[in-house]
Amino acid sequence: MARRLISPATACQGCGLVKAGFLGMVSPLHYQRLPPASSKRGSSGNNYSSFCTNLTKEGSHWTRTIPKPSLSLRSSNSLSQRTSCSVATEPPPAATEGPEMDLPKEIFLKDYKKPDYFFDTVDLEFQLGDEKTIVTSKIGVSPGNEVGTISPLALHGRDLKLLSVKVNGTELKSDEYTVDPRHLTILTPPAGVFTLEIVTEIYPQLNTSLEGLYRSTGNFCTQCEAEGFRKITYFQDRPDVMAKYTCRIEGDKALYPVLLSNGNLIKQGDLEGGKHYALWEDPFKKPCYLFALVAGQLECREDSFVTCSGRKVTLRIWTPAQDLPKTSHAMYSLKEAMKWDEEVFGLEYDLDLFNIVVVPDFNMGAMENKSLNVFQSRLVLASPEAATDGDYAAILGVIGHEYFHNWTGNRVTCRDWFQLTLKEGLTVFRDQEFSSDLGCRTVKRIADVSKLRSYQFPQDAGPMAHPIRPHSYIKGAEVVRMYKTMFGASGFRKGMDLYFQRHDGQAVTCEDFYAAMCDANNTQLPNFLQWYSQAGTPTVKVSSSYNESSKTFSLKFSQEIPPTPGQPLKEPMFIPVAVGLVDSTGKDMPLTTIYSDGMLQTLSNDGQPIFTTVLQFKKKEEEFVFNNVSERPVPSLLRVYSAPIRLDSDLTESDLYFLLANDSDEFNRWEAGQVLARKLMLSLVADFQQQKTLALNPKFVDGLRAILRSTILDKEFIAKAITLPGQGEIMDMMPVADPDAVHAVRTFIKKELAIQLKDDLLAAVSSNRSSEAYTFNHDSVARRALKNTCLAYLVSLNEPDVTELALNEYNSATNMTEQFAALAALSQNPGQVRDDALLDFYNKWQYDYLVVSKWFALQATSDIPGNVANVQKLLAHPAFDMRNPNKVYSLIGGFCGSPVSFHAKDGSGYKFLGEVVLQLDKINPQVASRMVSAFSRWRRYDETRQALAKAQLEMIIAANGLSENVYEIALKSLAA
Predict the structure, then answer these.
(1) CA-closest candidate to residue 281, choices 261, 257, 311
(2) What residues are labeled active site?
(3) How many angstroms separate the CA atoms of 284 and 792, rounded?
(4) Residue 648: CB partners within 8 Å, gap ≥ 6?
(5) Could you read off the pLDDT of 556-615 as tens digits, one per residue?
(6) Residue 753 near residue 793, CB atoms below 8 Å
(7) How many whole angstroms separate alpha carbon 107 and alpha carbon 470?
(8) Mean pLDDT over residues 42-67, rounded?
(9) How confident is the model over 693-733, as pLDDT tens digits?
């Protein structure tokens, strides 16, 4: 499933939400899926509550018929607005009292056992209707246990009306099965192979949870990962039950002219009463979470791709007719992904048809259902006038991600949801590599590491800390990357080949992937599996020394993993550390031999000099000695960010400025600047708290000036290098987070840099204008990124000349990237200019719901005084709808990403979110659980804020009929 369900404003900081700044909306940050809103599942990463509750593709357990929201958040004229925006769900059902919530139950990895029964074939039939849908499933069942042992067959089910159940064609009597709100149990199934036929009645038009089968904008759509299939029919809803499926869909031909499911279209035709049908067959085994159905009024863009073996694959992207012109970039991205997967991994698409469907109301970013991917609208639709470079880049990455799942997730899937990182971490890594190859590798690596630090590291340090197993996307990708770092590209490819050779068509574990990598490379990685079982972010300390007489240079490493909930003690991790040594002229020094652990290792590469080597740091403490080092070098540590750790080295300020200017590893060049900026910001925060006068270090200004003036460096890299660390990153480094002080210091530094670099910034804006038509390629993206970053700095001065400059950029912009960047720059400063620009932008784009979501997000993330009240007013805006996840992520999620507003001293931000979570929980518990996660690190703040946040958590937990999703996260946050 797609990683990327983030508002244009950005998403969350681990279990809390962090502001990405305006660049998060206008530059290609290759958004990840909204990071997990889930708790840590147990003491050692080997158990978790309610099995799949709150997985990132959350298996959402809600406990009642969907109730009517307690408070309408739409004004009387909102219906027409939503119609014009092409976004709508069905009207909410009448209020209904549901059963009391079952407390989440902890399930342990060690308790896994294979299913008692396997499903070999599944034949589904859907009779779609406006008021109800009838689902018939005919399942070929075979025993999974020992011969002669007969166990009850327990099937999962939620919100289903059971009409009939038959075994081998005979309807069961009432005493031959039991039904409760979560299960249908066949008490004494026949021995051997048998056929099970179940008929259920469901109500998709009332399903605002957007899980299972639901209706949106008049169309039917499914979302089954992780546990949505049980809301369609009774089934063994677990990923290790794999079967071959057929799906027959019947519906009104006028209302639902397009009927889609997985696999190949076998048959279609007309029926009496103005209905028609389509029969689909998927020849590959799959778990039920990959089942998909779409029915409605859609049109398609069609293209084709010829595979490496010469097969022609038909490609179709389905969307409402008015959006069809915006699908060309998505089709380009799909064809590029198919080509890349063949060239890099030798993986060819295995069917003759590949469908993508675009829907406006979708909890995820996208879903990799076999041959029928479903996408949230903003991750497919793009035009230069209405989409930013960031949108184009996100579409490229997510289209690739979902397509790559065809092999890493579909052909080989996970045995259980504890293994989710097996498919998601691996596929995130693959899409990162894809985007890197089609863009700038260094810039992409910076973006990925920035997300890791913003989202994963804070989560690792909070009450929701968990290992990458049961689930991790971003950090899981970093663990996969470490295999490639250690084995090299060819060794990694050998491991992938063996993985598919062994496990095609199977549901497997993380250990299976580890074994394939090690066996293919004929090696072992001691304690590497700790990455799958230990929570927390390792801190690695490094000290260096140079021996002039022996010409040796020593690096001493120590590692520490802080305690996390349920894991007070940690074992050392296997940490690959890529290292280079830089001489006094700024050149890399050739590396010849390294002495460590009583062994001397000679470095060689077919007679070519080696400038970077990977140290395998496996113990609590370890020393590595480099020989034949002619002078004291400056070490370049953790090149390309070779492991997901926090690094604490003895590099001096002078060393860091030297690396900023000279390191051949551009990631570490950027990192040197970030380390300097973090140290500067923390120092100034301390001064601010002590009411001292703030002053900017001239060396820091000079360092950024040199970067800004460079004619050699990539322009997008320059834009990244001159961007300050985010407020959340700095607060995360403080013993007690102080959002007001951090905001004040960051604002001060930004304005001081704008004052001292004003001429250079103006020159960059001027020299990077272009009158050429919009193109999405790296050079153009880089030019716009640098121009927009510089413009934001300048407008922070709030001076008439630069304000006029920004207004001219806004009015003359020919693409959304530059227009929205100018608007974001102007919106920094409260006043009439800001208000007029925001109103003008809305009036221009009010009928494009994706652009309106950007508009919501920009205002929600604002740090202007009194923004809590502004966001509260936007809840009643006619374009906002609490039932559309993208609108919620833009406005509510965006607001939580503004530390100074969300953590307002008076508690108004907390109160606002608490009330919204309860309203949202009655509509879509999965989305509500993501929002409540913003409270998870409330103990990081001062006592006053702690008391205010705690009160809201207590209020949420005390609410009647709360969903399990929200309850689990709120409870674990409160208990932290």
Answers:
(1) 261
(2) 402
(3) 51
(4) 539, 540, 541, 542
(5) 999 999 999 889 999 999 999 999 999 999 999 999 999 999 999 999 888 899 999 999
(6) yes
(7) 11
(8) 33
(9) 999 999 999 999 999 999 999 999 999 999 999 999 999 99
Give the global pTM: 0.91
Provide long-range contacts, Cβ within 8 A and 24+ apart, for 841-846.
845/386, 846/81, 846/84, 846/879
| Separation between Cα atoms, residue 807 and residue 633, nearest integer Å | 49
Backbone Cα Rg of the chain: 28
Count of CB atoms within 10 A of residue 625's CB? Answer: 18
Cβ contact 591:626 at 8 Å: yes
Determine the average pLDDT of the residues in 811-817: 98
Whether residue 33 contacts residue 425, with contact meaning beta carbons closer than 8 Å, is answered with no
Instruction: Output the pLDDT for position 80.
Output: 33
pLDDT at 110 over 60: yes
Contact 252, 127 (CB under 8 A): no
Looking at residue 742, its amino acid is: V
Q: Which residues of 954-965 are buried (b: 16+ CB within 10 A; e: fewer)?
A: ebbeebebbbbb
Helix, strand or coil, per DSSP, at residue 268: strand
Tell me the pLDDT of the chain averaged across its residues.
Answer: 90
Average pLDDT, stretch 63-67? 30
Query: Which residues in 697-723 are b (16+ Cβ under 10 Å) and which e?
Result: eeebbebbbebbeeeebbbbbbbbbbb
Under a CB-based contact definition with an 8 Å cutoff, are residues 855 and 824 in contact? no
Query: Residue 815, Cα to own-chain centre: how many angstroms?
Result: 26
Question: 106-115, 305-314, 856-865 — which is least confidently predicted?
Answer: 106-115
Closest CA relative to residue 787, chosen from 801, 775, 810: 810
Select the more confidently predicted residue: 71 or 579: 579
Contact 114, 146 (CB under 8 A): no
The dihedral built from the CA positions of residue 954, 955, 958 and 963, taken in this order, carries a sign that is negative
Q: Which residues pair with 544 in a beta bridge?
A: 555
- Mark residue 566 as left, alpha or beta (left: phi above 0; alpha: psi -120 to 50; beta: remaining): left
Pair 30, 393: CB distance under 8 Å: yes
Q: Could you tell me the two tokens for 79?
A: 């219906």
Using one digit for the tens of pLDDT, what is the confidence trace for 572-589? 999 999 999 999 999 999
C-alpha–C-alpha distance, residues 276 and 300, integer Å: 19
Q: Work out the burial of residue 605: count CB atoms within 10 Å of its CB; fewer than 13 is exposed, 13-18 middle, 19 or more buried.
A: exposed
Residue 400, SS3? helix
* 750 touches 724 (CB < 8 A): yes
Task: List pLDDT tens digits, range 505-557.
Answer: 999 999 999 999 999 999 999 999 999 999 999 999 999 999 999 999 999 99
> Given the structure tokens 């089968």, which residue do they identify?
213
pLDDT at 492: 98
Query: How far apart are alpha carbons 10 and 869 in whole angstroms?
Result: 21
Per the listing, tokens 């407008």 go with 795
H helix intervals, 452-585: 457-460, 474-503, 510-520, 530-533
Helix (H) or strand (E) holding 812: helix 800-812
Closest alpha carbon to 38 in 49, 26, 27: 49
Q: Tell me how crowded residue 525 is: count the other CB atoms within 10 A of its CB.
A: 19
In angstroms, the CA 725 to CA 429 distance is: 24
Residue appearing with tokens 């670099």: 757
**Does residue 926 contact residue 58 with C-beta atoms inside 8 Å?**
yes
Q: Judge if the upstream peptide bond of residue 470 is cis by omega within 30 degrees of 0.
A: yes
DSSP at 164 = E
pLDDT score of 101: 56
Angle, helices 778-795 vs 800-812, to 10°: value is 150
pLDDT tens readout for residues 222-274:
999 999 999 999 999 999 999 999 999 999 999 999 999 999 999 999 999 99
* C-beta separation of 331 from 303 below 8 A: yes
User: Using CA atoms, how far apart are residues 571 and 777, in angstroms rounded to an integer?
Assistant: 45
Assign 611 to helix, strand or coil: coil
